Amino acid sequence: MTIALKNLPQIQTLLTYPAIAALVDLFSHTETVDALRGVIADLRAAILAEDAALPDFESAVFAATVLHRIEARRAPSLVPVINATGIIIHTNLGRARLAPEALQAMHVAGESPSNLELDLGTGKRGSRHTHVETLICELTGAQAAVVVNNCAAAVLLSLMATAQGRTVVASRGELIEIGGSFRLPDVIAQSGATLREVGATNKTRISDYDEAIDDTTAALLKSHTSNFKIIGFTAAPDRRELAKLAKQRNVILMEDLGSGVLIDLSPYGLGDEPVVGEILKSGVDLVMFSGDKLLGGPQAGIIAGRRDIVAQLKSHPLMRAVRIDKLSLAALEATLRLYRTPHDPLRDVPVLAMLSEPIEAVEQRAREMMQALWDVGITDVDLHNSTAYAGAGSLPQQDLESYAVSVSVPHLSADALATALRKATPPVVGRIERGHIMLDARTVTAPEVSLVARAFARILTP
């Protein structure tokens, strides 16, 4: 072992070998040196573990090892993943799948110059907001709308433009925390407004809001508890009550939906998510919701409501810092158009299609996945009833009936198999239950079934 360690060559020596010098010419000196250091470090560790002999450092085989390391470092970090978790809008896996129309719109917007901020009629500078504002108003009944880069930015902008230096009244039961430990009270503080909490965690009455309003009050803030549910001894005023109070006391009523849907999902057993249009009809002045959750589009924060308030937001200095980019804007416009006839969003928007897919179709795909796994030599597979979820803080108490395939591979624990699947190309992400990998068919598309089987085949024959 000591002799082998002493015979490890210096990096400068390796760089003189023709096969390695060719890598310097093909890539760069820095990349090649970094790769060589990594390969030598691996060799040193293997020798210390008495698990390796020295290779022929001048050979094409050794150069290929270095090349593989360079290519691995150059490979894209963001890669496609097969979502077999049963969570449709999985934040860690990129949230909503985009429709083909949205992807094509992004391609067109990225490939060529566009009229992003040019009025083609007058030849003068235009506004990027006009590309989707009419669509949003048509689909929600809002007087006006504006779009920013995400829903948190939408809340922050709305508060800064309307309540900076004043107070915002909110129920204690709605002071939510979203992913990444971002808390609504902190957002309110950053906006320059002062939070006035009312009610109790489980019960807030209209009188609590009424008593909290004074000359400093700018807005009542309602937050849809889209990522948790309080059940039992609870009470909260109806939106219409809050809207009536806000109008009487001359303050704004705004609601942070977090997610937000444009159509009624109750026929599919998903009735806990309020429809944006119905919220505005109830008298709420301003609604903020996401583009990349139940709407099924790209990351975006959509603000819809009263024309005069939206005008304030458009002219606020923060607007430029949180504005939506052209690719997301193109994808959002294309997604919104799928809500218009003759399109059917339940068919054409992937998130809604997965949510509403009949259980019989999910079962059939699960059985096809079982067969595909048998065909590549995986014998320990079984079909199970499963529960899927919308995810991303949407419909927290709504279970979706589903089917999943449980899989085991000899000599690999469930954790080891999960790791191997994440390292596959493309990576496959499932869940572990009772010592088995579970692959939920509600979030695996038909074209992905063969890719799942291929990943297992490679694990069997590395």
From TrEMBL:
InterPro entries: PyrdxlP-dep_Trfase (IPR015424), PyrdxlP-dep_Trfase_major (IPR015421), SelA-like (IPR018319), SelA_trans (IPR004534), SelA_trans_N_dom (IPR025862). Residues 5-44 form the L-seryl-tRNA selenium transferase N-terminal domain. It comes from the Bacteria. The gene is selA. It catalyses: L-seryl-tRNA(Sec) + selenophosphate + H(+) = L-selenocysteinyl-tRNA(Sec) + phosphate. It comes from Sulfitobacter guttiformis. Keywords: Cytoplasm, Protein biosynthesis, Pyridoxal phosphate, Selenium, Transferase. Pfam families: Se-cys_synth_N, SelA. GO terms for biological process: conversion of seryl-tRNAsec to selenocys-tRNAsec; selenocysteine incorporation. Converts seryl-tRNA(Sec) to selenocysteinyl-tRNA(Sec) required for selenoprotein biosynthesis. GO terms for cellular component: cytoplasm. Belongs to the SelA family. Pathway: Aminoacyl-tRNA biosynthesis; selenocysteinyl-tRNA(Sec) biosynthesis; selenocysteinyl-tRNA(Sec) from L-seryl-tRNA(Sec) (bacterial route): step 1/1. Its cofactor is pyridoxal 5'-phosphate. Its EC number is 2.9.1.1. It is found in: Cytoplasm. This is L-seryl-tRNA(Sec) selenium transferase. HAMAP family: SelA (MF_00423). GO terms for molecular function: L-seryl-tRNA(Sec) selenium transferase activity. The modification N6-(pyridoxal phosphate)lysine is found at residue 293.
